[in-house]
Structure formats: C-alpha cells, structure tokens
Amino acid sequence: MSLILNRRALVKGAGALGALAVLPPGLLHAAPIGDPETIDLAVSPTRSTKLLVWKPASPKGVVLFSTGHGSWPERYDRLISVLLGQGFAVLAPVHVDSMHYPERDKFTFLSGLPERFVDMRATGAYAAKTFPGLPVIAAGHSFGTLVSLALGGGLPHFKAYDPAVKAVLGFSSPGKAPGLVPANAYTSVKVPVIIVTGTEDTVPPVMGHATAAEEHLFPAETAPAGTYALVVEGGTHQLVDDAVRFPRTEAPAKLFVDAYGLGDARARRKLDTWKPSVGDRWTIRKAQA
C-alpha cells in the first residue's frame, strides 16, 4: 500500500528529525585521512554541489556517505579512516542543509530533504562511472543514516532505492517520526544493515517529539534482510566522533563492510561470533525467510 504524506504530517516529522543536528564544533578530528579530492557535481539541471572523494591506493569498494543534518563530510574523520583502511573509497556530497553549503539559506528543512536524495542519486552515478564494477555500500550518521536506509530500499515513498547498494552502515539512526518515518518505514529494506548507537544517544524534544536512545534501534528491529545492532555504554549522538568510545565500534564495522560489502565469508563468520566490550550490547537478527 502506498504511503500518502500530507503537508501537516511532513512538517511535524520534519521538526522531529530536524533536531538531529551537527556534531558540536568543539569535537576534533584525530584520524589522519588526508585531504579529499573535491569534485563539482551537477546533481540536477539547476543545481550542483561539492562531492568529496577519499580514495585508498587500490579501491576494493565504494561507500556512498550521507552526513548528519547541518554537518559536512570532513567532520567524520574517524569513520572515514576505518572505511579507507578496509579498502573503500568514500564519496560524500555536501548537502544543502550543510553549514558548508553556500546557499543553505535558500532551503527549508522540507525543501532540502528531497535534495539529499538528489545528491545521493548523482553520487551513485558518479561512483558507477568512476569505480565501475566495484561493490557499493551506503553509510551515514543521524539523518544521513535515514538517507542510507532509503538507498537500501527503506522509506519507499521517497523512491530513493539504489540497486547497486549491497549493505547499509548507520550511526545514530532517527527513530519513528510522524509523516516521515512510519512504523513500516524499514520493512522494505533489501540489504543487510548494521546500526550503531549508544545508551545516551538522545535528541531533545522538537514539536512534541523526542528521540530516546532506544528509538535508534528501530531500523535494526524491523529491516528484514538481516541486521546487527551495537549499543555502546555511555555513547551519545556524537559517538561517531567520540575518541574514547568510537574505537569500540570499529571491529564490527570493519567486519560488516568486509562481509556484506566485499562478500568475505570469513569476515561474516567472525561478525556472527564477535563479542562486544563489557557493558555494550550486541544484537543479531537473521534474515527473515
């Protein structure tokens, strides 16, 4: 059954998800990933943006990366370093809601939302042309995880599914949001998913809706193609750039991208028997028949 979104529901949902904001300015980038190549990417007949590209010496795969709302790709040095280390080129567009987008003020949350999917469609096309034949995964943080899940087949009302995407790696995914993320939002996801969050990963109330820490597990609890979920004790919405706690997420992230991005059966066996740090919680849901 198709989902019809009315404007009132969209506004309410947009307000809730709009709380998923940028990483605080005080956080530092510690991982040495080097300067990216910057591409002028035409995303539509009327708009272009910057596409940042990090490449390992010999790419084995490609990551289509979507940032948190208001953020920008360079803020994710730690995660990008992990992905580069596994042999993945990382392609990350500057979305119109980013503080680094020069015409940010021209877009509201509602008008900027579909532009994120336009960005990722163009990024996927660039990946197919520049890295032909390499496997592709989608990754994101916060609102960017929602976008990545849509690329993997979720939220079908956005028509963002990219059949090239083989898996989704997400940090701090949004929970349910009326009008935008309904109860069946991720039942159409077609690929394996790993969601990483923390026990303190909360978002303040906006327009009557707060995101509690447990809500970030919603995609992992409902996507049918097999899911993994890691909850880090003490991890906040900035877990992806937490110098103390982020290292506890690296091993399963590496195994997941190798297993489902590169088709490494040995990595998959290791992932299925991996044990988290004391105090953290690790959940595996097998693919539904």
Question: What global shape is seen?
Answer: globular
Task: Describe the strand arrangement of the main beta sheet, using strand numbers.
Answer: 1-2-4-3-5-6-7-10-11
Question: Secondary-structure element order, as H and E?
Answer: HEEEHEHEHEEEEHEHHE
How much helix, percentage-wise, in residues? Answer: 25-40%
Question: Rg, please?
Answer: 17 Å
Please give the CATH architecture: 3-Layer(aba) Sandwich
Mean pLDDT: 88
The tally of structural domains comes to: 1
GO molecular function: hydrolase activity
Protein name: Alpha-beta hydrolase superfamily lysophospholipase
Signal peptide: 1-30
Keywords: Hydrolase, Signal
Keywords:
nine-stranded mixed beta sheet, two-stranded antiparallel sheet, 289 residues, 7 helices, Rossmann fold, alpha/beta, single chain
How would you characterize this protein structure?
By secondary structure, this protein is an alpha/beta fold. The protein has a single domain (11-17, 33-285), classed as Alpha/Beta hydrolase fold, catalytic domain (Rossmann fold, 3-Layer(aba) Sandwich), CATH 3.40.50.1820. It is 28% helix and 22% strand. The protein has helices at residues 7-18, 77-85, 109-130, 143-151, 218-222, 247-261, 265-273; strands spanning 37-44, 47-54, 61-66, 88-93, 136-141, 165-171, 193-198, 203-206, 209-211, 227-232, 281-285. The protein has a 9-stranded mixed sheet, with helices on both faces. Strands 8-9 form a two-stranded antiparallel ribbon. A hairpin with a 2-residue loop joins strand 1 (37-44) and strand 2. Helix 6 packs antiparallel against helix 7. It is globular, with a radius of gyration of 17 Å. The two termini are 21 Å apart. The relative contact order is 0.15. Residues 1-7, 25-30 and 205-210 have low confidence and may be disordered.
